[in-house]
Design brief:
Length: about 100
Protein backbone atom coordinates (compact mmCIF):
# COMPACT_ATOMS: atom_id res chain seq x y z
CA UNK A 1 0.00 0.00 0.00
CA UNK A 2 2.77 2.36 0.94
CA UNK A 3 4.59 1.54 -2.27
CA UNK A 4 1.49 2.26 -4.33
CA UNK A 5 0.95 5.65 -2.75
CA UNK A 6 4.59 6.55 -3.20
CA UNK A 7 4.29 5.57 -6.84
CA UNK A 8 1.12 7.63 -7.18
CA UNK A 9 2.81 10.58 -5.55
CA UNK A 10 5.77 10.24 -7.89
CA UNK A 11 3.42 10.12 -10.86
CA UNK A 12 1.57 13.18 -9.66
CA UNK A 13 4.83 15.05 -9.58
CA UNK A 14 6.40 13.68 -12.73
CA UNK A 15 3.42 13.85 -15.08
CA UNK A 16 2.99 17.63 -15.00
CA UNK A 17 6.73 18.03 -15.47
CA UNK A 18 6.65 15.76 -18.49
CA UNK A 19 3.65 17.55 -19.95
CA UNK A 20 4.76 21.05 -19.17
CA UNK A 21 8.50 20.62 -19.55
CA UNK A 22 9.87 23.40 -21.64
CA UNK A 23 11.05 21.12 -24.36
CA UNK A 24 11.88 23.56 -27.10
CA UNK A 25 13.89 20.94 -28.93
CA UNK A 26 10.81 18.76 -29.28
CA UNK A 27 10.29 18.14 -33.00
CA UNK A 28 6.50 18.10 -32.50
CA UNK A 29 6.50 21.49 -30.83
CA UNK A 30 8.83 22.93 -33.44
CA UNK A 31 6.46 21.66 -36.12
CA UNK A 32 3.42 23.17 -34.41
CA UNK A 33 5.24 26.47 -34.00
CA UNK A 34 6.15 26.46 -37.70
CA UNK A 35 2.49 27.10 -38.38
CA UNK A 36 2.94 30.47 -36.65
CA UNK A 37 6.36 31.62 -37.76
CA UNK A 38 5.38 32.22 -41.38
CA UNK A 39 3.36 35.21 -40.22
CA UNK A 40 4.80 36.10 -36.82
CA UNK A 41 8.47 35.60 -37.73
CA UNK A 42 10.88 32.80 -36.85
CA UNK A 43 11.20 34.03 -33.26
CA UNK A 44 7.65 35.33 -33.02
CA UNK A 45 9.08 38.83 -33.23
CA UNK A 46 6.34 40.02 -35.55
CA UNK A 47 6.54 41.07 -39.18
CA UNK A 48 5.06 44.19 -40.69
CA UNK A 49 1.51 44.50 -39.45
CA UNK A 50 1.61 41.06 -37.77
CA UNK A 51 2.08 41.55 -34.02
CA UNK A 52 5.00 40.16 -32.03
CA UNK A 53 4.00 37.12 -29.97
CA UNK A 54 7.29 36.48 -28.17
CA UNK A 55 6.64 39.37 -25.78
CA UNK A 56 3.32 38.14 -24.46
CA UNK A 57 3.37 36.57 -20.98
CA UNK A 58 2.07 33.02 -20.78
CA UNK A 59 -1.36 33.67 -19.25
CA UNK A 60 -2.08 36.52 -21.62
CA UNK A 61 -0.97 34.47 -24.61
CA UNK A 62 -3.21 31.56 -23.64
CA UNK A 63 -6.14 33.89 -23.00
CA UNK A 64 -5.66 35.54 -26.39
CA UNK A 65 -5.68 32.17 -28.15
CA UNK A 66 -8.73 31.00 -26.20
CA UNK A 67 -10.55 34.23 -27.04
CA UNK A 68 -9.70 33.87 -30.72
CA UNK A 69 -10.89 30.27 -30.61
CA UNK A 70 -14.19 31.05 -28.91
CA UNK A 71 -14.81 34.10 -31.05
CA UNK A 72 -14.71 36.46 -28.03
CA UNK A 73 -11.94 38.34 -29.73
CA UNK A 74 -12.53 39.29 -33.32
CA UNK A 75 -9.75 38.60 -35.76
CA UNK A 76 -8.93 38.40 -39.42
CA UNK A 77 -7.17 35.03 -39.30
CA UNK A 78 -6.38 34.05 -35.72
CA UNK A 79 -9.92 32.88 -34.95
CA UNK A 80 -9.60 30.23 -37.62
CA UNK A 81 -6.04 29.30 -36.71
CA UNK A 82 -6.72 29.01 -32.97
CA UNK A 83 -9.51 26.51 -33.58
CA UNK A 84 -6.91 23.93 -34.59
CA UNK A 85 -5.30 23.86 -31.16
CA UNK A 86 -5.95 22.77 -27.58
CA UNK A 87 -5.08 24.58 -24.35
CA UNK A 88 -2.02 22.35 -23.98
CA UNK A 89 -0.73 23.61 -27.32
CA UNK A 90 -1.37 27.23 -26.33
CA UNK A 91 0.76 26.79 -23.22
CA UNK A 92 3.58 25.14 -25.15
CA UNK A 93 3.46 27.77 -27.87
CA UNK A 94 3.45 30.57 -25.30
CA UNK A 95 6.63 29.18 -23.74
CA UNK A 96 8.22 28.34 -27.08
CA UNK A 97 7.97 31.93 -28.29
CA UNK A 98 8.67 33.55 -24.91
CA UNK A 99 12.00 31.70 -24.90
CA UNK A 100 12.84 33.27 -28.26
CA UNK A 101 12.33 36.87 -27.30
C1 LIG B 1 -1.77 33.91 -41.64
C2 LIG B 1 -0.90 34.64 -40.72
C3 LIG B 1 -0.87 34.16 -39.26
C4 LIG B 1 -0.56 32.91 -38.78
C5 LIG B 1 -0.19 31.67 -39.58
C6 LIG B 1 -0.60 33.01 -37.34
N1 LIG B 1 -0.95 34.28 -36.96
FE1 LIG B 1 -1.23 34.94 -35.03
N2 LIG B 1 -1.85 36.73 -35.74
C7 LIG B 1 -1.97 37.07 -37.07
C8 LIG B 1 -2.68 38.34 -37.18
C9 LIG B 1 -3.02 39.05 -38.48
C10 LIG B 1 -2.98 38.75 -35.86
C11 LIG B 1 -3.83 39.94 -35.42
C12 LIG B 1 -5.23 39.41 -35.12
C13 LIG B 1 -5.97 39.03 -36.39
O1 LIG B 1 -6.32 39.92 -37.17
O2 LIG B 1 -6.22 37.82 -36.63
C14 LIG B 1 -2.41 37.73 -34.98
C15 LIG B 1 -2.46 37.79 -33.60
C16 LIG B 1 -1.95 36.82 -32.76
C17 LIG B 1 -1.90 36.91 -31.32
C18 LIG B 1 -2.33 38.10 -30.47
C19 LIG B 1 -1.21 39.10 -30.43
C20 LIG B 1 -1.50 40.28 -29.57
O3 LIG B 1 -0.68 41.21 -29.57
O4 LIG B 1 -2.53 40.32 -28.88
C21 LIG B 1 -1.35 35.75 -30.86
C22 LIG B 1 -1.10 35.37 -29.40
C23 LIG B 1 -1.07 34.94 -32.01
N3 LIG B 1 -1.43 35.61 -33.15
C24 LIG B 1 -0.51 33.70 -31.94
C25 LIG B 1 -0.32 32.85 -33.03
C26 LIG B 1 0.09 31.49 -32.94
C27 LIG B 1 0.43 30.77 -31.64
C28 LIG B 1 0.12 30.98 -34.20
C29 LIG B 1 0.44 29.57 -34.64
C30 LIG B 1 -0.39 28.53 -34.08
C31 LIG B 1 -0.27 32.06 -35.10
N4 LIG B 1 -0.53 33.17 -34.35
C32 LIG B 1 -0.32 31.97 -36.49
C33 LIG B 1 -1.52 36.34 -38.14
C34 LIG B 1 -1.15 35.00 -38.10
Amino acid sequence: MFEISVYAAALAISVPQAVFSDDCASPDLARIALACTGCHGTSGQGMGSIPAINVIPESKFIRAMQDFKSGHRSATVMDRIARGYEDQDFLKLARFFWNRR
